[in-house]
Amino acid sequence: MHYFISLLLVIIGLHVSIQSVTVLVSKPRNYKSVLTVSNGMSWGSWGSMDLCPTGMYAAGFSLKVEEISYAPWDDNTALNGIRLHCIDPSRALEVSYYDYATVQSEVGSFGKWTEIKWCPFGILTAFQLRVDTYQVIADNSAANNIMFKCSHGSFLEGDGTDWGYWGDWSSTCQGSGICGIMTRVQEHEGIWIDDTALNDVRMYCCGSN
Fold this sequence. Notes:
Layout: H1 2-20, E1 33-35, E2 45-46, E3 50-51, E4 57-65, E5 79-87, E6 101-104, E7 112-113, E8 117-118, E9 124-132, E10 142-150, E11 155-157, E12 165-166, E13 177-185, E14 198-206
Antiparallel strand pairs: 1-14, 2-13, 3-13, 4-5, 4-7, 4-8, 5-6, 9-10, 9-12, 10-11, 13-14
């Protein structure tokens, strides 16, 4: 009897050991297409791409913004960063979200983060950028604000600044939604050089897989 119990414990122990070393490898997420706009500026360098977790899409966003100062000695940078807030699309008809993931690319050094703006329905599918074009003598601030289109037709304008002009809309994610971001940001250049922070952005669309 004792031999049987000992043998049983050995078998159970081997089973537990085998189970404990089982590793599940998740499949890397692939994007379907890239959304760009034509009015972005070219100072700085592109940061890394950051994608929502698999199965999630951006339904909201927030901005890092330095408020405009009109003092002649101030160096304005306006828009410094963009965060996408990702949800499970099965919850895309809700107004408020509590279980979400946040992704961002390169972010500038100045300003504060705004409150999240959510699509009232659906997920983000296209964007438009407000950009202050090159100034020969005056202060350059590059990107100032961003606007998104939601899959159910509504529009979300960010709480950025109002220098510059809105450019053309990007193309629209087809049969999917925005799932990732990459930003072009000029790092802080020092006291005697004109800083612009965020210059341009790319959005990534993911399919249903």
